[in-house]
Specification:
This protein has about 100 residues and is of the alpha+beta class. It has one domain: HU Protein, Chain A. The chain is about 45% helix and about 30% strand. It has a three-stranded antiparallel beta sheet. The protein has a two-stranded antiparallel ribbon with strand order 3-4. Strand 1 and strand 2 form a beta hairpin. Helix 1 packs across helix 2.
Length: about 100
Amino acid sequence: MIKADIVKQIAKQLNLKDKDALAVVDRILESMRDVIVANGRLEIRDFGVFQVKIRKPRIGRNPKDKKEYPIPPRAVITFKPGKELKAHSVVKGAALPSAGA
């Protein structure tokens, strides 16, 4: 599912025009981004937690010439699913829908 699919689903469920649903989805995503940037953490009860974590610096190697290169520390955003989301079959490891479906 991509953003356009979410917009269409919200438009259908709330009887909105696609343009209005797109504005709603964009605003929600923008608000989530703003909270993560400002606080480093966004918790949505029963859904999950988005959190900024710092990866440690490390040494990388070029597989062709075996030369070592330092990789600096960097910030990454992680997601840990909540209890209710874990309870659904997709997260528990049930068969995922195929890409062609």
